[in-house]
Amino acid sequence: MKFIDLFAGLGGFHKALHNLGHECVFVSELDPTLRQVYQDNWGIEVSGDIKKVELEAIPEHDILCAGFPCQPFSKAGKQLGREDERGTLFDEIVKILEFRKPTYFILENVPFIAKHDNEGTWNAMKTELERLGYKVDHEIYSPQDFGIPQHRKRIFIVGSQIGLSHFSFKEIDKLKSDNIDIKNFIDLDPKNAKPLPKVNQDCLELWQEFIGTIPKDVRLPGFPIWGMEFGATYPFEEEYPHMLSETELAKYKGNFGISLKGMSKEQQLANLPSYARVESKFPDWKQRYIKNNRLFYKENKKHIVEVVKRISKLPSQSWQKLEWNVGDGERKITDYILQFRASGIRVKKVNFFPSLVCSNTQIPIIGWQKRYISKNEGLRLQSLEGVKLPANDNAAFKALGNAVNSHIIGLIANQLIKIPINKKVSNKNSEPKLNNIKTNKSIVI
Questions:
Q1: Is the separation of the CB atoms in 269 and 310 below 8 Å?
Q2: pTM of this structure
Q3: Is there a catalytic annotation at residue 24?
Q4: What pLDDT score was predicted for residue 375?
């Protein structure tokens, strides 16, 4: 069968459907770098902005694939949904479906799209797709559900003009696997991996010292450790900094116990944690974290006071925060998977990687090798082995963060696409021009 690949990125849909023997007849991708990479991988011309492509220029096809931009609906973004210009790209999908009437479609997005605007966005989308004659279903999956060590939940939406009596996500659920060995996805000191800079390593060593000073019989906090709260006294419950005058705020202490006396209001706010400079009441969860951190410091001050002084000198507030997500595990930071995030330095168990995101500042770190994951390891986590990436590391990891997991798409497509008896599918017409694309042997046709 013939398919089109919209908002194509690295070609996760293409690889999955190619492995199943289908032929790509049209591709669109806005990013010029990715257009060239896609063409290099698959030997097919790639169109740019789909909004500028005439409907008549899109060939007839049997399957429409689209991992349409997720930023409008992501919880990490502003969640503007269809008010965001990128959110209207769903309407471009609808136009193509209405004009060409392909038998099937497979869409991918962030799970939050189903809850956005009290489910109003999803209900509007579903109604529009059903208006075009499609039976629609959806399910949320993560690569870790299928033995791939990456926590990356995504919603997969399928539609069919011939109904869905032949398709059930329950059949795909039967393919789930708890057999995950992260070591099978990690190379031993690969040459192309970026080492963790010394300044980051020094930061980790300082936090390791912090952990080492805490008695063994004291449980490490399960809540995020916010170092700025150690010694701070500014109000955060009924009152909060922005509602106080300069004179009133001068009675309190800010980051790491610094006195706010003798400062202008602007200086006082600058010496508070960034999350405390808001102009509205703190939410309950933030109040809880502040209260827990201040209590932890009070109870353990004699053990940690000296190392906390040095933590206060770290270059950014995100480095002054630590998320210990390994419970009672061995208290050695470099035994784990790490991330330097805006929310703090995250330490997590070695069972699966955090979700690859489009920001190159959050690339997962293999603690015991003191390096970021390599591009090849990133490809493995997205089931895109053999796909050529942009030469620039930042562009490569941005592309990986935006990519669709090819293995999951393959499992869904294999169940969804029912080939008519009189319509044979040939691998011959869908071979890529280059030989660097490996087929996914785990997908059985």
A1: no
A2: 0.84
A3: no
A4: 93
